[in-house]
Structure formats: C-alpha cells, structure tokens
Amino acid sequence: MTGPAEVRCMLMRGGTSKGAYFLAEDLPADPAARDDLLLRVMGSPDPRQIDGLGGAHPLTSKVAVVSVPDDPEADVDYLFLQVAVDRPEVTDRQNCGNILAGVGPFAVERGLVAAGDGETSVRIRMRNTGELAVATFPTPGGHVDYTGDAEISGVPGTAAPVVIEFPPAASPLLPTGNVLDTVAGTAVTCVDNGMPTVLIAAGDLGVTGYEEPRDLEEDLALADRLHEIRLAAGKLMGLGDVETATVPKLSLLAPPRGGGAVTTRTFIPVRCHTSIGVLGAAGVAAGLRLPGSVAEGIARLPEHGDRVRIEHPTGFLEVDTSVDPGSEGSPPAVRRTAVVRTARKIFDGTVFPRAAALPAQPQGGNDGSAPR
C-alpha cells in the first residue's frame, strides 16, 4: 500500500499515555490504507519502534483520529486506534480514556471547536463505542493553557487539569447479568463502565497484587491462567472470541496500602499496566460499589462521597462514581463517572512515515525460467 509522504500530526501526552493525534481529513479514508500508514508512522512492527514515533510500549503506541461529527450532541468525533508494537496490527476494539484527555485541547488547536475565555468544554463522541464524554479544560484568552498545578500519578510534574465526565452508558454495567461469575474456575466480576473489564481477587491467582508489573508479566503460569480467564470471560460478556482483541482488560484487586480504596494490577491485555487506564479505573470504581462483587472484603470504601482512590503501580487515580445498586427487575446502573486527567502538547508539525514496502517481485519469467 502507498500513502502520503508526510502527514500533519500532533504528538501529545494524554493522561499516562502518549500518542499521535490526527485530523481524519489528513489520513486516508480507506481503513486498510490508514492502518498501513499508521504502522509506518509509529514504527511497527518492531520491538523498539526505532523507525517511528512509537515508544516501544502499548501505552506510547496510540493514535487519536479526530473529525467533525454528524451528531448534534457532539462537538467532535474521536476514534482511538491501538497500534501494536511488535506485530502489524491496528485495532479499534477499545476506547482509551487517557488519550481522550488530549482530544479537547487538540480540537481547539486545530480549529474544530472555538475556545471560551476562561475554560472550554468539548463534547466528544467516542466512535469506538458510540458513547459521549465531556472534557473541560482551561483556555484563558481563548487559547489552550497546558500549565497548571494538577498532578497525576505516573506523570512527572504538574499540568492544567482536564476534567472528563462520562454520562451513563446505554450498555449494561453487568454484561453477564451477574455480580459474581465463575470463569475458568475463578470468581470474577465482569463490568463495563466504558471499558469491558474483569475484576479478580489477586489472592485467587496465587499473587499478592503488589508485585511489580514486570514480575507479573514474567510469571508464565499466571499468564496462562489469565489467558484462559480472558477468553472465557470474553464469550460470557458477549464479546465473542477475544483471542486477538484488546478487551476485556483484567484487573487484579488487593487491599489498599496507600490510603486508597483498593490496589490494582491491570493487564492490557498481556502487558501489565504501569498505572491504570481511565476507563479501566472507572470500571473498577463501579465494581467496588456493587454488593457481592469480588471486591467485597478487599476494598475499603470511603464512608462519604463518591470519590474513590484506585491505587496502581505508580500511584493512584481518583474517580468520582455513583452507582444505583438496582432492585428486583432493575439491574445496577452507573449514575455518574468523572475523573481528572492532564494533557500536554509535545510537538505539532509534520511526520514522515517509513516508506511503504514494495510489492514482491516475481522470481522467474513468464515462461517459468529461473531468474537471471
């Protein structure tokens, strides 16, 4: 496949992820051609992504495609694409709440949304799921200001806060219809608060839940067990065969050690997250508030208020979550979810993708003779 020799691009940190942000009009309209171009932009497949923008990790090999919506309820459309690091794969089967944090500022920077004097709220349609989010961030004098005193774990320094609110989703909070399921011989709680997520007590898998991500990744027995659980849970959640999918995520739960509500180790789906995704944390926070879930006896919920602190390997993420526990004939449902993230523009300019591979040449002549 061929594509443009250069592409307008903005590299941004969104939350604890980093990605390349594009206007849809600057990319090929054909999804196959677009994905081929993005693989070459990011430097995949290559474990180091040495010939592209990618940072050799799923958290730094992400793409946001932003466009003008045809939905009057949204200001912009946002398509998230996960670019695999070591294989030629681009998938749109999940959202990313961290990269979402940069979408509003990017939309203002590109002129898709007019900035207010003081702060701006951007209604974002997440095309991966069709759900809405509203991002609010400072725009003094009508310009995006990335500086501020908001601090999030996993990111050095401080930046301007980006408050992201997620209206209640139309999809059920409990995709299986149950607060507790047994999957591959293990008790789990399957939730979907913007991201299909499977909650598991770490102790049920023979780990503490406090291990370093690398140590968990190198535990081959654990990897096999998680793989088995994920495949079975995917079918139970109505996702079908998830062998090559990036969802559902698996989040191991352990009692908190830093004053939060729970400690987490989240798999995305094979690598262990060095922090936790925004939507994954939203799922965990909702699951903690469900009586009878796997979190019961593990989590320590605050006595007052909706805010819960989700601990992860590099700190914590705070989520405001209100859940209606439901009643007979009425399933549990999320009333409100909101998080505070930050974002920063790293560069704005032109990226030059790796050259497209030439089609394979025939090895012999038309008469079947050996090549000269």
Automatic annotation (TrEMBL):
The keyword Transport does not apply. It holds the Pfam family PrpF. One of its GO terms (molecular function) is isomerase activity. It is an enzyme of class 5 (isomerase). Coiled coil: none annotated. Keywords: Isomerase. The keyword Zinc does not apply. NCBIfam families: OMA_tautomer. This is 4-oxalomesaconate tautomerase. It comes from Streptomyces sp. 900105755.
